Hints:
Shape: globular
Number of domains: 1
CATH architecture: 3-Layer(aba) Sandwich
Amino acid sequence: MNAVLELIQELAVFEEEPEAVEVTADDLKNIGFGENPLFHIFVAEVEEKIEAMALFYYRFSTWKGKTVHLEDLIVREKYRNQGLGSALYKEVMKFAYDQNLKRVEWVVLDWNEGAAGFYRKTGADVFQKWDTVQMDEKSLKNYVKS
Length: 146
C-alpha cells in the first residue's frame, strides 16, 4: 500500500491539492484488506513496481441498484499514454459487467479535458449539469454542533 499511497499523493499534486491527502498506508491496508474491506483495487506493474492503480467500491443507486464507484484511476506521470490507464479502466468496466451491475460512476475535474475526452471515446457520458457536493470534516463538525 506504500506504492498506492505514493500514487495517491502524485494525483493530489496533479490536481493541485498536494496537502489534501490524509490517508496513510496503514489506513489503506486496514480499510481495504481488513475483515470488511471497503474497496477493491487493480494495479499495473512495470518491472515489478506498481506504476498505476484503479481503486473502486460498491455503492447503491436508488434508480439502478448496486453500482460501482471508480474513486481514482492513477498512472504515474512517466507512464501516462502507454496503455496502463486504459487497461485498468477496462478491468474495472469488466468487473462491473461480470457482476451484472447497471452502472459505473466517477468524477473528472472540468479542466482535465484529456481524461474527459478519453472517457467520451469509450462511450461514457460526462455530465455538465451535475455538481459534486461534499462536506469536509470541519463543516461536518460545525453543522452537527449548530
